[in-house]
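FW: tagging you since you asked about this chain on Friday. Here's the raw sequence from the shared folder, copied in full. Didn't touch anything.
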Amino acid sequence: MEGRKKEKTLYWVIILLVIALGVSLYYGVRVSVQKQESYAHGVELQSELNQVMDEYNTVKLENQDLSSQLSEKDSVIMANRKEIEKLIASQADYRKIKRKLELLRAITQEYVVRIDSLVTVNKQLEEENIQMKEEVNRVQERNTQLTVDKQRLEEVASTFKAYDLNAATFRVRGDGKEIATDRAPRITRIGITFILSENKVVKAGKKFIYARISRPDGVVMSVSDDDLYSFEMDGEKYQYTIKEEIDYENQSMPVKMVWDRISDGAAMEGKYDVMLYMDGKEIGRTAFMVRK
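HL: got it, structure written out here
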């Protein structure tokens, strides 16, 4: 009887040991599986976190000039990233970390949307600025052209013209009568006649007309080389042959200018050029011939 008791006791001890070993193996396997699952979840969650941050950093890097306008979002994103990394490291609840990741993804997506919006607005502003600059340039060009046109009109309006310009040579008789001649030995006077144009723009009053008569050899006929017998045009001085003072009243008027020979010798044969000037501008030119 006692032997059977011992056998029975040993039997139950063995059964208990088997059960204990089975339980121990079960919990060991379960813990191992949980650790493997936790590690896999950690890798998965870290990968998702890295993907979200990579997208965020790419957008931020491509739009550095705009990202400063969203600095408050940067702070929120970085704070959430640190919190998620701590949760992953501590192997916190998978679903909790997932929710945090979804929140971070939503924040970064909003960040991207706002960056895109700023890019669009900036492009519109740049296009508007370009259009505005182009319009300003067009207006400036129009104003410049108008100024140039106005100056040209003023110049044209203030310009005089000598119409029906004629230069002729004469012999003056003792009684003062002019006899037309183109013979060099007989010529004692050169007469220039023309109609001075009407001009309503310039100020009426005393004005001077200058005639330059150049001989066939190019020498300008003049009383003297002294500055008293010169006039200014474009900052330079020019000798004149005849100077005529007129009383201009803004109406067209006939003008006659006369040069009387001051030497006893005969006039030079050939072509003589005549140029008229008034108010610093040429108003007409002609020529005449002298024969032997």
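FW: The CA atoms of residues 153 and 191 lie 33 Å apart.
HL: agreed, and The longest helix spans residues 94-157.
FW: great, closing this out.
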